[in-house]
Amino acid sequence: MKKHSPPLKPLALANFKRIDGQLSNLVANFWKLVWGKEDPAIDQKTKYLLSLANAVGAGRYRQATRELVKAYAIGLTVDEIDELFTLFVWNQGAGNFALEIGPSPLFAAYQRIKTMESRESSRKEVMEELMRNFSEGNPAISVRLNE
Q1: What is the pTM of this model?
Q2: Domain coordinates in residue numbering, the chain
């Protein structure tokens, strides 16, 4: 299975070092077990989708947006995203979707992908746009501590 480098790095791990070096090492090793396994049973795109869906269920739209960007970077299609968002409406209800998911950066990123692809933008162009608007420069997405 081909390894890839995700467009958004696990920068939040640096925050654990601010607490304790041992804690930081434990969390970093756990991250490697989950995301850096040499021969994973679950493919990377599916892991991103599971992580995205779990983040939405927990109301963590910052994490969900990051997972969407990473999944799109490795081939997630608009059709797959459409089905995923349909599942969010089904599982969380139309009201929750309208009030929580709809105004989130996650939904904005999804709509940007869908709009750009409908205008026949290349995946590279879409990724550049996502990285401009839905990465560390956006406070709703960033995991860096602002000092």
Answers
A1: 0.85
A2: 11-41, 42-133
